[in-house]
Design brief:
The protein is of the alpha/beta class. The chain contains 15 helices and 17 strands. Helix 6 crosses helix 7, helix 8 crosses helix 9 and helix 14 runs antiparallel to helix 15. It binds one RNA strand through helix 5, strand 15, helix 11 and helix 14.
Length: 394
RNA sequence: GGUGGGGUGGCCGAGUGGCUAAUGGCAGCAGACUGUAAAUCUGCCGCGCUUUGCGCUACGUAGGUUCGAAUCCUACCCCCACCA
């Protein structure tokens, strides 16, 4: 049910196919983020047409609202959202980082003050598994302790050691859930719908931490592998405030220690240039809120750099966002119209640029894959960088 | 014709002697955003310059009082309400 086939490598870059209960994912691939069970602003059909093979959901947010019991009662996250392809749920570990000030970390778990109503919610490694099991994504993520990019060695070490201890607990609880899952014993609702998520099986992926310290990263991966085997391994705690060269160094340092026969997932990355830098360093999967968030904010990526569609010069432009893009937005709408939509605060504008940005990243993954298969990734990467000059970059 | 209220920067609208080139909001301009507390946030926003500063112009118009006026006085112009 869970397998990864590596088709080709080009330097450290890899092209493969990941097989999951709800379908396959050709890598390298970008996974759009759908925190609340929806890629914000977009219809599942639009996400699909943008080329998405797999999307994310979030444990913390879906636990608070509507609650995993509701999702489960309505058939699991796939059926609930009508996204019938692969899905991955994040564990809430990132919220330990992003909701700093609203949470308290203890060995047992993390106590959150709900940002919705102020109520106290505790997420433990065990409950993160139970929630994700109820949501029913193909891939569940271990509950981890993410620390900021500027974190001291001491804090990074604390985060990585706790993440390892929690991983052990996640693995045990997830195994219990899987063992107790008897397809023949799925309880049914009176109307015949199944209570468990599609009746399909779910896999658990661990997360490597260790901040920006190479030796801590090594310790983290050794600890993770000792608890294996795994069907995929995630690299967490990057793109959280550390300089880019540091992220690159950490990825390079990790490479020799990573097994080659499982996909590597770099969590929370990234921007287009980061995607290629990650692929160049052996990463297979990415996710990031940037395409949708930036899209809503009027910031679009194009093959020749970043474009702020609200900027005055686009007022009379008939050109598409990106002449080289095959997305629905670029095939149909002018910059002038898109700018108008943003100035008028029409929601269509937010959606159209989100669609473009998602398609842009997915297309980038597709192009990289072809280049790797044809053994010309370095050339592709170089040429791409030559054209893409994000403002403010050297 | 009379009485009362009012005319402030692109718009709305505070401000009733110095701390006011003038609070706010809108509009406009530019930027940020990396496992989503984000359709959010930040900066600029009279003109010019050698721009952490300097100069000029400015609160209907003209004049006056004062060391100093968007703020006080006079006249005029215009707008609104009510009365004839």
């Amino acid at each position: 049910m869970f397998s990864f086939q590596l088709h080709a490598t080009d330097g450290l870059a890899r092209a493969g196919t990941l097989t999951l209960p709800h379908g396959t994912v050709e890598t390298p691939a970008f996974m759009p983020v759908g925190t609340h069970g929806t890629v914000r602003g977009l219809h599942p059909a639009e996400v699909r047409r943008a080329g998405a093979q797999i999307i994310l959901g979030n444990t913390y947010h879906l636990h608070l609202r509507p609650g995993e019991a509701v999702v489960q009662a309505l058939g699991g996250l796939h059926r609930f959202s009508t996204w019938d392809r692969p899905m991955l749920t994040d564990s809430g570990g990132f919220q330990v980082f992003s909701l700093e000030g609203l949470r308290k970390i203890a060995e047992e778990g993390v106590e959150f003050v709900s940002h919705l109503d102020g109520s106290r919610r505790t997420i433990t490694p065990e409950s993160a598994m139970e929630i994700q099991w109820a949501l029913g994504a193909d891939i569940a993520m271990a509950f981890d302790h993410v620390v900021p990019g500027q974190a001291s060695r001491e804090l990074a070490e604390e985060g990585l050691e706790r993440t390892l201890r929690w991983l052990d607990r996640c693995k045990r609880r997830h195994a219990e859930l899987a063992d107790s899952h008897q397809p023949s014993a799925i309880s049914d609702l009176p109307d015949g719908r199944r209570l468990t998520a599609d009746g399909s099986v779910q896999t658990l992926w661990p997360i490597i931490q260790g901040g920006t310290h190479d030796d801590l990263r090594q310790r983290s991966i050794e600890g993770v592998l000792a608890l294996g085997p795994w069907t995929g391994i995630a690299i967490g705690g990057l793109s959280v405030g550390e300089p880019k060269p540091v992220m690159h160094r950490v990825l390079e340092g990790l490479n020799p220690a990573l097994p080659t026969d499982v996909p590597r997932y770099l969590m929370g990355v990234g921007f287009p240039d980061d995607l290629l830098e990650g692929i160049a360093r052996g990463v297979d999967l990415f996710d990031c809120v940037a395409p949708t968030r930036n899209g809503r904010h009027g910031s679009a990526w194009t093959s020749t750099g970043k474009v702020n569609i609200r900027a005055a010069p686009h007022r009379l432009s008939e050109a598409p966002l990106d002449a080289d893009c095959d997305c629905e937005t670029c095939q149909r709408f002018s910059r002038g119209y898109l700018r108008h939509l943003f100035m008028a605060e029409e929601m269509l504008g937010l959606r159209l640029v989100s669609i473009h940005n998602i398609r842009f990243l997915i297309q980038l993954g597709e192009q990289a894959r072809v280049a790797i298969l044809e053994d010309r990734f370095d050339r592709f990467h170089h040429d791409w960088r030559e054209r893409y000059h994000p403002r403010g970059a050297p």
